[in-house]
């Protein structure tokens, strides 16, 4: 694995920031200790054990995979940790919004993949530079376990055409894949140890392979915005004010959850999910399970 990026008082130096904007990604960045990360994982797996059979309006996997920060305090605690925000500030500046957070879990010896795609294709925000995704590893992310692959410099492209494959083996809601051939030699394997994270731009072409290892591959993808970002497709969109001030007001500010799957948080989750559906389902050629209203929805997502 590559050597971790050196932080200066917990922050990115100017050279690393320049590299991020040149390559469209940066990694690995250590933000949590192995012990602390193991505690996060243990807490998550206890939640899975306790709530898997609970009488929730939607399957537990749906809440883990879409806007987990609305209903799971563990996720919000990680996303709003000052050590993470200090790094993000180097890319987006001092005013930060938490827009979404999703747990991406590949079980051991499974064949599911994530097709190569660009995130901003599905967010309804155009090609804005006012966003960044951090991907925090809660277990080893290796080539064997299905780590992400990034295409260096691909964020300099516009939003490219994508195909909806609707493959059952693709974790994305439409099985979407960018409609260009991506050679293996053009992929950078984003291997991370537990407690490390990567950064990537919303136009960076990326995806991931199957997990053929003996352990779960657990990652938390957190999407941050500069308040200048704007939802252009949906009528309303939502975010947590993570740091600084929002002088623009493009997003409705929401509170962080006070407990696991509280009634208030579940109601808010339903409202956000309905309002965001217009943006996240734009251009789909078939109905998306993600945006239905029944509890039988499969837990796929339009975001990586």
Structure summarized in a few sentences:
The protein is of the alpha+beta class. The protein has helices spanning 14-23, 34-51, 60-65, 73-79, 82-92, 263-280, and strands at 25-30, 96-106, 114-117, 131-137, 148-151, 162-164, 176-178, 187-190, 196-200, 206-208, 217-225, 238-243, 252-253.
Description:
This protein has six helices and 13 strands. Helix content is 23%, strand content 22%. By secondary structure, the chain is an alpha+beta fold. Mean pLDDT is 89; it is low at 284-304. Strands 1-9-4-11-2-12-13 form a seven-stranded mixed sheet. Strands 3-10-5-8 form a four-stranded antiparallel sheet, with no helix packed on it. The protein has a two-stranded antiparallel sheet with strand order 6-7. The protein has one domain (14-291): Sandwich (Jelly Rolls). It starts with 13 loop residues before the first helix and ends in a 24-residue tail after the last helix. The longest helix is centred in the first third of the chain and has 18 residues, at 34-51.
Helix and strand arrangement:
Elements: H1 14-23, E1 25-30, H2 34-51, H3 60-65, H4 73-79, H5 82-92, E2 96-106, E3 114-117, E4 131-137, E5 148-151, E6 162-164, E7 176-178, E8 187-190, E9 196-200, E10 206-208, E11 217-225, E12 238-243, E13 252-253, H6 263-280
Quickly list its features.
13 strands, single chain, disordered C terminus, 4-stranded antiparallel sheet, 7-stranded mixed sheet, Jelly Rolls
């Amino acid at each position: 694995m590559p050597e971790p990026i050196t932080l200066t008082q917990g922050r990115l130096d100017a050279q690393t920031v320049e590299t991020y904007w040149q390559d469209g990604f940066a990694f690995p960045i250590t933000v949590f200790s192995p012990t602390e990360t193991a505690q996060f994982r243990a807490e998550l797996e206890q939640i899975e054990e306790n709530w898997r059979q609970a009488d929730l309006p939607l399957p537990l996997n749906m809440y883990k995979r879409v806007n987990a920060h609305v209903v799971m305090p563990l996720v919000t605690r990680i996303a709003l940790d000052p050590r993470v925000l200090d790094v993000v500030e180097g890319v987006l500046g001092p005013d930060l919004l938490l827009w979404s957070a999703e747990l991406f879990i590949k079980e051991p010896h499974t064949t599911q993949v994530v097709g190569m795609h660009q995130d901003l294709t599905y967010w309804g925000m155009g090609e804005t530079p006012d966003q960044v995704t951090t991907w925090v590893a809660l277990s080893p992310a290796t080539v064997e376990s299905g780590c992400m692959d990034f295409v260096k410099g691909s964020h300099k492209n516009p939003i490219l055409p994508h195909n909806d494959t609707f493959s059952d083996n693709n974790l994305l809601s439409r099985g979407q894949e960018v409609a260009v051939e991506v050679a293996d030699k053009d992929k950078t394997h984003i291997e991370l140890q537990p407690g490390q994270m990567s950064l990537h731009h919303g136009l960076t072409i990326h995806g991931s392979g199957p997990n053929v290892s003996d352990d779960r591959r657990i990652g938390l993808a957190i999407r941050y915005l500069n308040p200048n970002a704007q939802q252009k497709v949906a009528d309303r969109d939502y975010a947590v004010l993570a740091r600084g001030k929002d002088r623009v007001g493009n997003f409705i500010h929401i509170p962080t959850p006070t407990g696991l799957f509280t009634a208030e948080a579940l109601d808010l989750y339903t409202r956000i999910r309905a309002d965001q559906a217009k943006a996240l389902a734009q251009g789909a050629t078939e109905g998306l399970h993600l945006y239905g209203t029944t509890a039988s929805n499969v837990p796929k997502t339009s975001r990586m």
